[in-house]
Amino acid sequence: MRRSAFTLVEILVTVTIGVLILAATLMIFNFSNRSRNVTATARALQTALLVQERFNEDLSRLIPGSSTIKFHDKNPGRISFWAYDPEFTAGAEIGVRGVVYYRDETTGLVKREWNDRVDAVGVAPLKSLEFWPFMGPTGPLVRVNMVVSREKGEPPGPDTVHTFLGRIPQPRGHPSLKWKPVSGFKTAKEDEPKGVSLPGVEEEKKK
User: Fold this and answer.
1) What is the β-pairing status of strands 93-103 and 178-183?
2) CB 38: neighbour CB atoms within 10 A?
3) pTM (predicted TM-score)
4) Three-state DSSP class for 20?
5) For position 95, what pLDDT does the model report?
């Protein structure tokens, strides 16, 4: 006599195996999704920390004086200043360059202009970038606010918000030093700080 149906035990075993396979698949999917989420967050944080490191390094070489740094009132996501270049600094002569930081509207990446070049800082796009000056207990500072967004193809999740402070060096008075501009700004009308009074800069422009 041939059986025409499964027994209750066989059905229960089949269902149990199916449930276990489905559970294992969901666990693998969730683990993979969490792993991609962690990777996306780490990538965003890496870009934020790279911007912080590079910006503070440039800012530490800012030529002291309110006339050597420019905050863009209508565009807080842009900042420009004069910074000295160690490679062109020897003895009493200091080589200075124009430095610009901004968020590229097309790619969302942070761009750094230096030595007539424009390079991206980091690989993650930013949703917003702001530079705000304020007076701290130890002197003038720059507060930098960044919101790093997710890229296409990454799992949904919160944006990475990163804020840091940069110290603005103060004048100490070095009348014997000579400033020599090595490179300026690609868009001088927009980025060059107003009232630049560095010895040698105006003479260099007239040449």
Assistant:
1) parallel
2) 12
3) 0.73
4) helix
5) 85
